[in-house]
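thought: fold this chain, then report.
action: predict
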Amino acid sequence: MKKILYIFGQLNNQDVEWLTENGRKLHMKPGETLVTKGDESHHLYIVLEGSLSVVTGKDDSVKIASLECGEVVGEISFLDGGSPSATVKADTDCLVYSILNSRIEDKIKVDEGFGVRLYKALALFLTERLRSANAKYNDSEDSENKEEEKSSLDELNSIMTDNVGEAGRRFTRLLTKMKEL
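observation:
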């Protein structure tokens, strides 16, 4: 859930309302594929319910992450226009919110403020993901580097703390709206 707060903490209420009105929900069964490594991706997704696995490797046998409520999928392909580098499959029954990248791009053309807020949100989201991944591999580093990394994470988290309450309310509204449709 924390991950979506990075995004919804940067967007305003009108941005979230627009996202809610311009996407659709997808119901997935266990084993269904949401994103396939190497295939074109045209959507940005938010996990609303359930659990998905991110897998990679020659035969998609290496699980690299689990995604649950509030996780975002497809953000890298949205940003760079490239193909996904991993496959995402449902582990359980899932409800996923989907919005076409082209709709987001059209919105940015007419509302530059939305674009600035969205790109900043995705940058913060990816920064947190990278810092977390780096922390896993920095266990052997000296304590000075660990303190520097902790300080950077604290700074990033302070950016989020300012908006976390409103971000949570925005996500709750999105969840409620999607379940009503």
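thought: worth noting. The longest helix spans residues 112-137.
final: tokens above.
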